[in-house]
Amino acid sequence: MTYDFTIIVPVYNEEDNLDRVEKELSDYIKIATKKTKILFVNDGSIDQSQVIIERICNENSDFSFISFKENRGLSAAISAGFKNTTTKLVGYIDSDLQTDPKDFNLLLEQIPEYDLVTGVRSNRKDSFVKNMSSTIANGIRRSFTNDGMDDTGCPLKVIKTEFASKIPMFKGLHRFLPAMILLQDGKIKQIPVSHFPRIAGEAKYGLWNRLVGPLVDCFAYLWMKKKYINYNIEKQG
Hints:
- 39% of the residues lie in helices and 17% in strands.
- It is α/β, with parallel strands linked by helices.
- The longest helix has 21 residues, at 207-227.
């Protein structure tokens, strides 16, 4: 079966959310504007997530998975997803489903004119501390990258795979995906998407991850920007 769009779903200890993920993404596939398949990336979960993922994939031909031997973090999971994508378009959504899969259609409307389209969480349903730390972190990141993005932490994105496959991932780089597309002379856009409170499982990021970690990552990004090699092949024989 030929697919046009792969949705990566990073998973780390989300056993309480996965049945809901199956239902929501199965429902989305039925209304998706592109022929869509789902790729779970199990980031070394130590609960029953892998058992549930395998059951879901056995029962749904549009679902598949890869599983890490041990936990390596969100950037590693997204990078592995990019490397195992064969469709022309790739996206991702968090397995906590605080964003709505149906909003992928809003992003897909824009992708012909852009190389990355990201959501901006409108009316966020998170705690004051989480919202404030994310706002500060986004401001710091923007001052380093000049990417113009208000919410790079939004776990709802669509990227042309030819661009995603050229991103050299390091830990924390998932926050810099729009900036990495700009380094390839690509075009990026952000649009508002829905946001919901987490109803199961536990958040994987604390204040350090959301604030201090991104500040350190900004310096890694500046180093990469200085060393980054960008090229386009004109002819091949």
